[in-house]
Design goal:
alpha+beta, Ribonuclease Rh, Chain A, 2 domains, nine-stranded antiparallel β-sheet, seven-stranded mixed β-sheet, 26% strand, disordered N terminus
Length: 422
């Protein structure tokens, strides 16, 4: 990997991305104040230490495997028609496991207000276009990403910030860092440069897609599919020093995503806006100082999809579905009760309420109910949590075995869950 680094913004005190030359530098954002961790970036990258690191303000641990996930939502469409959108930046452990919801005392609400109050209104404007929830619940989505993942960064603890930093400064820095990193990862442009553009009729092989992205970036990401449709991508990094102003080191994805080897569809977004960047470099995203115009693509509005049933079963896209404890099984599926609308509902089984805790889905009398949504995908109504329809498990169930269901695609077996009316 080349030693060249890319500045991640002067106001972030030189946070940089080390990697192959295809990564494109981007201009500074309107950061609320200059934050410097005072940490060196000459030491080992996260997950590559040979001795125990004691200063976790300057060494990201245990979540040193950073995962920047992007969405390609088409049903309904979100974000510009010529750009993927941000999901977040997740600190997985070096072995691929992960911890979530690490500090409930910092589960900040009104993220938009926090950014505005601390001078990051341009970051907020960018998020409102490129970090969007499939159901339009952006604020809830941002709060979830911060509380679930952002609070788990060791180098973003308030005690690691400069003295006198305002409350929530670490969350503001988190959103600015994620936006900045996303701007160096123009997935749509890299695919387009290789002649791969959204199509209603074409299909692609996994090797064609990953080769194009590796040629552009120097590393191989993981691609995830919803059925045969490409719908998310995972870019992986280690970091040297603090997340605040450290050096991001791009690495190959440690495991393959959920897409099959062939027959992958890359459908166009219907009814979405197209952001046309007025810059001289076609492969860079719109920076906060770039003038843009917005047009509307053909194709009409997104379908409204099926209504939420009051009762139904939940089927996995590969095999089986959910039984009453919320585990994945090939046995007789449980009947679930749904309360609410497709944009916001709770569900329960004969065991009790269903919810997500530390990334794990379960149902029981001692489970606190979580809020879910449902996304129409063709004839299917897919269960979603935190804006994502991806669920995963450590293995595929068979016979009498049951598998714990996790939100997201961090485990080896990835699938979607469809709601079928009883």
């Amino acid at each position: 990997m080349l030693a060249a680094t890319l500045a991640l913004g002067a106001a972030l005190a030189g946070t940089a991305l080390a990697g192959p030359s295809p990564f494109t530098s981007v201009g500074p954002l309107d950061l609320f104040k200059r934050i410097s961790s005072g940490c060196s970036t000459s030491g080992p990258a996260s997950c590559h230490n040979t001795t125990k690191q004691t200063d976790l303000c300057c060494f990201e641990s245990p979540g040193g495997l950073l995962l920047q996930t992007q969405f390609w939502d088409t049903d309904p469409s979100t974000g510009p028609a010529n750009s993927w959108t941000i999901h977040g930046l997740w600190p997985d452990n070096c072995d691929g496991t992960f911890t979530e919801n690490c500090d409930s005392s910092r589960d900040y609400t009104d993220i938009a207000g926090l950014l505005t109050d601390q001078g990051a209104s341009d970051t907020l404007s960018y998020m409102q276009e490129f970090w969007v929830d499939i159901n339009g619940q952006n604020e809830q989505f941002w709060e979830h990403e911060w509380s679930t993942h952002g609070t788990c960064y060791s180098t973003l603890k308030p005690s690691c910030l400069p003295s006198g930093s305002p409350k929530g400064a670490e969350a503001v820095a988190f959103f600015q860092i994620v936006v900045k990193l996303f701007k160096t990862l123009p997935t749509y442009d890299w695919l387009s440069a290789a002649g791969i553009t959204p199509s209603s009729s074409k299909t692609f092989t996994l090797s064609t897609l990953t080769s194009a992205l590796k040629d552009a970036s120097g590393v191989t990401p993981a691609l995830n599919c919803d059925g045969s449709n490409l719908n998310s991508i995972e870019w992986y990094f280690n970091v040297k020093g603090s997340l605040l102003d450290g050096t991001f080191v791009p690495i190959d994805a440690p495991s393959k995503g959920s897409c099959s080897s062939s027959g992958i569809k890359y459908p166009p977004k219907s009814g979405a806006s197209t952001t046309i960047s007025k810059t001289s470099t076609a492969t860079t995203h719109k920076s906060t100082t770039t003038k843009t115009t917005t047009t509307t693509t053909s194709g009409g509005s997104s379908p409204t999809g099926s209504p939420l049933p009051s009762k139904g079963t939940i089927h996995a896209s590969s095999t089986g579905g959910l039984i009453s404890a919320g585990t994945w099984s090939t046995q007789t599926l449980a009947t679930y009760t749904f309360s609410g609308t497709t944009s916001s509902f709770t569900l329960s089984s004969s065991k009790g309420s269903c919810g997500v805790s530390s990334g794990k889905f379960s149902c029981g009398s001692d489970v606190s109910a979580s809020t879910f949504s449902a996304v129409s995908s063709g004839s299917d109504l897919l269960l979603a949590f935190g804006g994502s329809t991806a669920f995963s498990a450590d293995d595929t169930p068979s016979g009498s075995t049951q598998e714990t269901v996790y939100t997201g695609s961090s485990h080896s077996e990835t699938f979607t869950l469809s709601i079928v009316s009883s």
